[in-house]
Amino acid sequence: xxxxxxxxxxxxxxxxxxxxxxxxxxxxxxxxxxxxxxxxxxxxxxxxxxxxxxxxxxxxxxxxxxxxxxxxxxxxxxxxxxx
Length: 83
Description:
Elements: H1 3-35, H2 41-78
Helix pairs in contact: 1-2
């Protein structure tokens, strides 16, 4: 796997998922809760759960990116190649 491809595709997606999930958790859900006070709690529960999954998925993508980069670097150094 090419490191440039990994950095250009997986890393931004992971960062976007993490920040998008935090944005929904911190800004969108409280704002919607103030505006629609008579809404069902079920809707808020599902939106919070979706935001948590977004954050967790983004963190997982970031961890996979870092592990792949570290493994690629270690293997190339181990076989005596260039970085």
